[in-house]
């Protein structure tokens, strides 16, 4: 291109870039303020008191069967520990969602509403495996509340807003984007976290993560940090999971999950590498549903009710979603032969990971 043409073109390109600037900035929200005004009254601070045994246990050297006996004999002193977290109201009658690790062991729970009202709360139910809890307060008026959104529609790069009680500074807001989906951080068998870079800190636990419409698409539960404070890596329980857990807690006070009674593992790389993927049954528990139905160690499960399974975590989740007492159809390979097996799902034992 001739030099004089390049020189004439430069101002045109600059003008186009300047013109594109406001349009590019307009792709993001101008302000979250209208949405925040609408949803913040439903975000609460949670204060708890918990009884703990001092860590310097003078009886820890004794055999386990004698420890409790000596603690009772000498009336070992216990201490009261204060804690704080966040939550959000999902029903005007006072149902509040938070984390199990916030309220699961609390002796006393106090909820601070956005208008300064303090109300005692009771635990409706908790689920340790997903770190979801449901508590309730009683007020003399209908309370402000927020609605669940659909986390399945959330994409990496979407704007999100986190609200809560970081470091005891109630009513705090931070904004960022979704950094990743489907994170497994080793917290439990149902890890499927949304990773966000909106700053969350101690005290944010149990607080809501909103989309731009003001719907709850996640529940803050953990951070990755070398310091204990935010470094831009936070994790939220997707609303797809949390809302189902909350519905069970509200109806039953507990979560009922399906269970086969097997140990499973992903197959090794050289195992059946030309066949369809699947999950290896490593062991079958005695008197469990799987054993009664004829499932054997060494079987390779490839589908549940016709839905393919690619890894052990996926199989555990699909079975857990089945109601205890219902039947599931497993497609499996046994010694090179494909077959199907109907199994009546059992109730997952309490506390099993």
Largest sheet, in brief, is: 6 strands, antiparallel, barrel
Number of helical stretches of at least 4 residues: 7
Mean pLDDT: 85
User: Quick one: CATH class of the largest domain?
Assistant: Mainly Beta
CATH A-level architecture of the largest domain: Beta Barrel
Could you give me the name of the CATH homologous superfamily of the largest domain? Trypsin-like serine proteases
Q: What is the strand arrangement across the widest sheet?
A: 1-2-3-6-5-4
Please give a handful of descriptors for the protein shown.
353 residues, alpha+beta, Thrombin, subunit H, Pdz3 Domain, 3 domains, six-stranded antiparallel β-barrel, 7 helices
Question: Quick recap of the structure?
Answer:
The chain has 353 residues and is α+β, with helices and mostly antiparallel strands.
Characterise the protein shown here.
It is a single chain. The chain is α+β, with helices and mostly antiparallel strands and 353 residues long. Helices cover 21% and strands 34% of the residues. It is built from seven helices and 20 strands.
């Amino acid at each position: 291109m001739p030099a004089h043409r390049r020189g004439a073109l430069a101002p045109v390109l600059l003008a186009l870039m300047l013109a594109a600037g406001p349009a590019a900035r307009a792709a993001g929200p101008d302000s979250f303020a209208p949405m925040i005004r609408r949803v913040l009254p439903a975000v609460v601070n949670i204060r708890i008191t918990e009884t703990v045994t001092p860590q310097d246990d003078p009886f820890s050297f004794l055999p386990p069967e004698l420890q409790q006996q000596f603690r009772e004999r000498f009336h070992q002193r216990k201490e009261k520990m204060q804690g704080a977290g966040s939550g959000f109201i999902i029903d005007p009658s006072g149902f509040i969602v938070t984390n199990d690790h916030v309220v699961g062991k609390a002796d006393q729970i106090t909820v601070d509403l956005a208008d300064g009202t303090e109300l005692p709360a009771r635990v409706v139910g908790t689920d340790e495996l997903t770190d979801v809890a449901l508590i309730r307060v009683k007020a003399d008026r209908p309370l402000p509340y927020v609605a669940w959104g659909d986390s399945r529609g959330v994409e990496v790069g979407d704007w999100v807003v986190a609200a809560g009680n970081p470091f005891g500074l109630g009513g705090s807001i931070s904004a960022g984007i979704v950094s990743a989906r489907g994170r497994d951080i080793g917290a439990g068998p149902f890890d499927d976290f949304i990773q966000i870079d909106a700053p969350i800190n101690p005290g944010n636990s149990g607080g809501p993560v909103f989309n731009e419409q003001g719907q709850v698409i996640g529940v803050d539960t953990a951070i990755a940090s070398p310091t204990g404070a935010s470094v831009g890596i936070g994790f939220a329980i997707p609303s797809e999971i949390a809302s189902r857990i909350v519905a069970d807690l509200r109806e039953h006070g507990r979560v009922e999950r399906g269970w086969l009674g097997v140990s499973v593992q992903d197959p090794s790389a050289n195992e059946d590498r030309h066949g369809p993927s699947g999950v290896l049954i490593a062991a079958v528990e005695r008197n469990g549903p799987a054993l009664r139905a004829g499932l054997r160690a060494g079987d390779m499960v490839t589908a549940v009710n016709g839905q393919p399974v690619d890894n052990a975590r996926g199989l555990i989740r699909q079975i857990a979603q089945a109601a205890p007492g219902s039947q599931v159809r497993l497609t499996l390979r046994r010694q090179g032969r494909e077959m199907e097996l109907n199994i009546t799902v059992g109730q997952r034992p309490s506390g099993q990971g």
